[in-house]
Amino acid sequence: MNVADLSINTNFAMSQYLAGRDGLPQNALLEVQNRLNVAAEDMMQSIASNRLGFLTMLDDAQTLKETKALAGQYPSSKYTDVIVLGIGGSALGARAVRQALAQDAKQNVRILDNIDPVQFSLALQGMNPKKTLVIAISKSGQTVETMAQLFLLINEFKKAVGAKSLDRHFVFITTRGTGSLYGLSQKYGIPVLPVPANVGGRYSVLSPVGLFPAAFMVDNIAELIEGGKKVRESFVRSRGNNIGEIAVIYHLTHLHLNKNIAVFMPYSSLLSDFSEWIAQLWAESLGKKHSRDGREVYTGSTPVRALGVTDQHSQLQLYKEGPADKLITFIEVVKSGAKGKKLVPVPPVDVEFSYLFSKTLEELLHAEMNATRTSLINSSRPSVTLSVPELSPKIMGELFVFFELLVVFMGHLYNINPFDQPGVEEGKRILRQSLT
Known about the structure:
The chain is α/β, with parallel strands linked by helices. The protein has 2 domains: 2-47 and 224-345 and 354-418, Glucose-6-phosphate isomerase like protein, domain 1 (Rossmann fold), CATH 3.40.50; 73-214, 3-Layer(aba) Sandwich (Rossmann fold). It has helices at residues 28-31, 33-48, 53-56, 61-71, 92-101, 117-124, 144-161, 180-188, 208-214, 222-237, 241-255, 272-286, 316-321, 361-378, 393-414, 422-435; strands at residues 2-3, 6-9, 81-85, 108-112, 132-137, 170-174, 192-194, 261-266, 288-290, 296-299, 302-305, 326-333, 383-388. Strand 3, helix 5 (92-101) and strand 4 (108-112) form a beta-alpha-beta unit. Helix 4 (61-71) packs parallel to helix 9 (208-214) and helix 5 runs antiparallel to helix 12 (272-286). The longest helix has 22 residues, at 393-414.
């Protein structure tokens, strides 16, 4: 099945393709067709009435223009370093973009999404405040961890450039008109970019939250938006059925086959941070105590991050012979874009690796994924494979919106709210009380 430029193979989640038949029966989708239709129609109505903020913000040309224009005020000739302060949804999208696309970035972008004091100190070693831009991101403007780091940096920059020049070295991304971050912006005249009011942090990567940091990593952030729009258009053309059918696979393998662990395993080191972005989106959107009608349901599968081929040698033993409670999602990049592809040469001595000779590492990487998937099939362990043609801003935009639509659709199938996070809010309240 294709969604825009993404290809999704769900065959190996079906029992007819698995050696031990521990998959979904052929008629599984037919049995839930009515629920699929209802969920798809509900999603279509939400799109038509602009209730899905992470999709409607893709059409906000004015904010995109403002974001690009502001980024243009910090050229690499004057600002060699960019420091991003944020946590969770305020940082993971930017991390995914940096790792996947920023190998040739002209500026050194560091993302501080933890308050580990060692990491913080190491990140600031050698920093020249006069050539550094700090981007602080918090929708509420009250995020404890982000504000703590920001206060420390403001103090350092005051010493180096003076309080009157802070507006040239800081940009805040927050809700305009409210919150401590916005208050600081007014005190020091610091530029502010908005977070859409109807978009939660984990859905905000294609808003200024992700786009402004991305502007220092890729040539044209509009291509990220174009990719997101392409998936949205594909979803609308199919009346929600393309992504909906994939959502049903994940939903049924969880509830009917007890696969309560969802493993995301990209076969590209450039997508390991993207799998972390998926993990937050998945866990925070689907792990809910209550259904929409107030019943206690305790639902959601647990996302686990793995990396091919590295974790073939660390986790695969568990996936193949441990508890049969996992659905593996392989993510493959058809063309890696690696420069100067080299063939494995014939060594000067006789060895037992003749099958490697004249192969590229890219060929080996694809063969490794196929071998791992086949091994799991032989043990009747279900999987889904998501293939992308390459890594580019457009494709990353497609991936972001694909997974956002997928988890929202699953929220409909679970009958839970995929946009709130009440379990996180309690921890925040306890933290504030403990520090008071």
